[in-house]
Amino acid sequence: MRLLMIAAALGLAAADGPAAGAGEPAAAGAEKPRFVSLRSAKTNVRFGPGRRYPIAWVFVRRGLPVRIVGRFETWRRIRDWEGSEGWIHQSLLSGRRSVIVVDGPAALRRKPDAGARAVARVERRAVGRLDRCEGAWCSAEFSGRNGWIRKTAVWGVSEADR
């Protein structure tokens, strides 16, 4: 009986594309890891790259940053700020950049300087729209407040973001 269930599971995986672990960037369709955000307030994350794969979990927050770490056709393998990975259709992703506070509460400052006046305190898990980064600081908007936050306090930026 167990052998029959394993064979059925393998048949389902083969019918809809690569195995759930496949789809890492390859030379033909390589895509450098990059940050994007969720386009929709409700986004299904699947175990594999296709609608036939079961839903692993559902994001319920628009604008949440995710990192693309792989691709297969129109599906993107993403990693969230907690390190969980799954597959999302490309139409549910936006190129608009955002960040999530992982070391908070954090000060949102008027200038990119630790001595600059704080314009707000941003709580852990707050999501903001990223404008740009300069050195160790990123300019972002959180709930209508614009300012600078330390790059180390947020997830959604890489060393390449200057």
Indicate how many domains the architecture comprises: 2
The CATH homologous superfamily name of the largest domain equals SH3 Domains
Biggest beta sheet attributes? 5 strands, antiparallel
The strand count comes to 14
Offer a concise description of the structure:
With 162 residues, the protein is mainly β. The protein contains 1 helix and 14 strands; from the N terminus they run H-E-E-E-E-E-E-E-E-E-E-E-E-E-E.
Would you kindly provide a written description of the structure presented here, covering whatever features stand out?
The protein is mainly β and 162 residues long. It folds into two domains: 23-96, Roll (SH3 type barrels); 99-155, SH3 type barrels, CATH 2.30.30. It has one helix spanning 2-15, and strands at residues 34-38, 43-46, 55-59, 65-72, 75-79, 85-89, 93-94, 98-101, 106-109, 118-122, 127-134, 137-142, 145-150, 154-155. The strands form four sheets. A five-stranded antiparallel beta sheet has the order 6-5-4-1-7, with no helix packed on it. Strands 13-12-11-8-14 form a five-stranded antiparallel beta sheet, with no helix packed on it. It has a two-stranded antiparallel sheet with strand order 2-3. It is elongated. The model is unreliable at 1-29 (pLDDT under 50).
List keywords for this structure.
43% strand; disordered N terminus; 5-stranded antiparallel β-sheet; 2 domains; elongated; 1 helix; SH3 type barrels; 162 residues; mainly beta; 14 strands
